[in-house]
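Postdoc handover notes: sequence design on the structure in folder B. Input tokens:
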């Protein structure tokens, strides 16, 4: 199973190099899920991931509390407040993480990275399991940000994989 996932990851990354898309963020910001959320967890994209800079600014401009993940030594995630100020980030490998204390409240909406999502919400990530662990006990709405061609009919999944509830592509918002 992991061999199949590894092949899929490699194939998607090769195609991503040629397709940086611009997202219609109004599809998300006009949705009831976004409108009703007070606390939104997002992430700082890097490399070939869909760009989250405009999305994170939109969250802040809408008066929402923005959280970003920090990966811990066991590969689990904790979320911390971020005010949009680049000086309040530190680099950890390829990722920029917020400086500050762990957020202990409830998260309403979690935007997660993915390489692909299938019609059942199964998510193909980078393979570390960090977001699967974060989503396991999450009761809010989870949404993956992917390019059009990365929304596929079916993906291999395992018992530890946690599906997302929504998908945002450059041209559509899909509820699963």
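Designed sequence:
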């Amino acid at each position: 199973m992991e061999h199949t996932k590894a092949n899929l990851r490699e194939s998607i990354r090769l195609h991503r190099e040629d397709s940086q898309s611009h997202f219609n963020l109004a599809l998300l910001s006009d949705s009831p899920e976004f409108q009703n959320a007070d606390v939104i967890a997002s992430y700082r994209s890097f490399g070939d991931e869909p760009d989250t800079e405009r999305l994170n600014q939109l969250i802040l401009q809408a008066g929402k509390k923005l959280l970003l993940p920090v990966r811990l030594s066991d590969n689990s995630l904790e979320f911390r407040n971020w005010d949009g100020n680049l000086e309040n980030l530190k680099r950890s490998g390829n990722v920029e993480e917020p400086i500050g204390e762990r957020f202990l409240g409830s998260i309403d909406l979690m935007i997660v990275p993915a390489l692909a999502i299938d019609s059942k919400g199964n998510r193909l990530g980078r393979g570390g399991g960090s977001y699967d662990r974060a989503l396991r006990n999450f009761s809010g709405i989870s949404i993956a940000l992917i390019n059009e061609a990365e929304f596929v009919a079916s993906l291999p999944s395992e018992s530890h994989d946690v599906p997302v509830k929504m998908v945002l592509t450059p041209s559509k918002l899909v509820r699963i």
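Context for whoever picks this up: The chain has five helices and twelve strands. Don't rerun without checking with the PI first.
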